[in-house]
Amino acid sequence: NMMNTKIERVNPEQIDETIMEEAGRLIAEGELVAFPTETVYGLGGDALHPEAARKIYAAKGRPSDNPLIVHIADFSDMERVAREVPEAARKLAGAFWPGPLTMIVWKSDAVPMATTGGMDTVAVRMPNHPVALDLIRKSGCLIAAPSANTSGRPSPTEASHVAEDLSGRIAMILDGGPVGIGIESTIIDLTESKPMVLRPGYITPQMLSKVLGEEVIIDPGIIAADDTRKPKAPGMKYKHYAPKADMVIVDGSSAAVISRINALVHEKQENGKKVAVIATEETRSSYHADVILSMGSRSNEDAIAQHLYKILRECDELHVDAIYSESFQTPRIGQAIMNRLLKAAGHTVIHCD
Ligand code: TXA
Ligand code: MG
C-alpha cells in the first residue's frame, strides 16, 4: 500500500505558511511528515497517538521496542511528558535548548507505551531548527521523530536521502536543505543516580558536566567493541549506519596510514574489487583507489561530522566492495564521529605506525 509522498521545499529563513499549515494538519490527522532538524532529518508523527508511533515503526522497518524521541517547541511541554521535571533538566535546557541534546526522564501517563517502546522513561528534545519548531507549533502536537532513514541505513542529512528511503511510505517530506550538524543529538539519561551519556553527539560530556556542576558518565555499553555490555539506549545495540561494503578504519600517523591504505587497496584491486577510500582534503591526492571521498579538512571537525553520513550513502550508490577510512579522533566531537564510524566498520580497526 504505497502512497504519494509530497516533497515540499521550505526556506528556513522565510517559511511558507501554507505549506507548513498543511504539514501541521497532516501530523494532527495522524499522518507522517519528514522534516529537517539541526542534527539529521526526522520522521515525525503525533507523539501522544499510539497509531502514529506504529506507522513510524512500519515506515522505517524499525523494531517496535526501539523508543522514539519526543520533540517539543516549548519547555512547558516537558511538564506534560515527564512525570516530574528534574532540576538537571532545567539547567540543561537553559544551556542547550533548543539544540542537539536529548534528555531521558521518567514519563507521564500522557505518553503512550507505543512511543517509548514499552519503557517507563521518555526521550525529549527541543530541536534548534525553524522548520521543526514551526511544524510542532502548527500541528498543535508533540512530535515523535526518529531519524528519517530506513532502519539500518545512515541517517539522512538531506531531503534526497529521506526520499531515497521513505518515498511512497509517508505523506510528506519538508525539504529545508542540508542539515547543519550531520550526526544525531547527544542523549543524556537523567533517571540514574549519575547523569549518563547514552549516545555521544555535538554536545560533549565536558559541556554537560560544566553546566550540571557534577560528573557525567558515559554508558560503558557504547564504548565496548564486543557485545558483552548492552548499551542502555535500545537503538545503540543495532548495527546501524552500515554501508553495504566491508569497511575498515586505519589508524596511526598520517604517513603510515597513507602507505598502509594504498597497500590494502592495491591488494583488493588485484582481486578485481572496487575500492573506496575515505580521506581528507589534506590527504586525498596521496591515495590510489577507484573512489576517493573527502570528509573535508581535518582541521574542521564540524565539516567532518556534516559529511559522514552522506559519504557512507555514496559508498552504497557507487557499489564499492571495500572501504578503507582514515580515523577521525578529532579534539571535540571526535568521540561522536568515531562512535558512528566504528559502527559502520563493525569495529574493524587496523593500527599502524
Ligand atoms: O538528533 C536526533 O536525535 C534525531 C533528530 C530527528 O531529532 N533523532 C534520532 O532519533 O536520532 P532515533 O530514533 O534515530 O534515535 C533515538 C535513540 C535510539 O537509540 C533510542 O533507542 C534512544 O534514542 N532512546 C529513545 N528513548 C529512549 C529511552 N526512553 N531510554 C533510552 N534510550 C532511548
Ligand atoms: Mg536513528
Summarize the entry for a quick read.
By secondary structure, this protein is an alpha/beta fold. The chain has helices at 17-28, 50-60, 76-81, 87-96, 113-116, 130-139, 159-166, 205-212, 220-223, 254-270, 301-317, 334-344, and strands spanning 6-9, 33-35, 42-46, 69-71, 101-106, 121-125, 143-144, 172-175, 186-189, 196-199, 217-218, 246-252, 275-279, 291-294, 322-326, 349-352. α1 packs across α6 (130-139) and α11 runs parallel beside α12 (334-344).
Itemize the secondary structure elements and their pairings:
Blueprint: E1 6-9, H1 17-28, E2 33-35, E3 42-46, H2 50-60, E4 69-71, H3 76-81, H4 87-96, E5 101-106, H5 113-116, E6 121-125, H6 130-139, E7 143-144, H7 159-166, E8 172-175, E9 186-189, E10 196-199, H8 205-212, E11 217-218, H9 220-223, E12 246-252, H10 254-270, E13 275-279, E14 291-294, H11 301-317, E15 322-326, H12 334-344, E16 349-352
Parallel strand pairs: 1-8, 2-8, 4-6, 5-9, 10-11, 12-15, 12-16, 13-14, 13-15
Antiparallel strand pairs: 2-3, 3-7, 4-7, 5-6, 9-10
Helix pairs in contact: 1-6, 11-12
Bound molecules: threonylcarbamoyladenylate and magnesium ion.
Threonylcarbamoyladenylate binds next to β5 and β6.
Describe this structure in words.
The protein is an alpha/beta fold and 353 residues long. 33% of the residues lie in helices and 19% in strands. It contains twelve helices and 16 strands. It has helices spanning 17-28, 50-60, 76-81, 87-96, 113-116, 130-139, 159-166, 205-212, 220-223, 254-270, 301-317, 334-344, and strands at residues 6-9, 33-35, 42-46, 69-71, 101-106, 121-125, 143-144, 172-175, 186-189, 196-199, 217-218, 246-252, 275-279, 291-294, 322-326, 349-352. It has an eleven-stranded mixed beta sheet with strand order 1-8-2-3-7-4-6-5-9-10-11, with helices on both faces. It has a five-stranded parallel beta sheet with strand order 14-13-15-12-16, sandwiched between helices. Strand 10, helix 8 and strand 11 form a beta-alpha-beta unit. Helix 1 (17-28) crosses helix 6 and helix 11 (301-317) packs parallel to helix 12 (334-344). The chain is globular. The model has no long low-confidence stretch (mean pLDDT 95). Threonylcarbamoyladenylate binds next to strand 5 and strand 6.
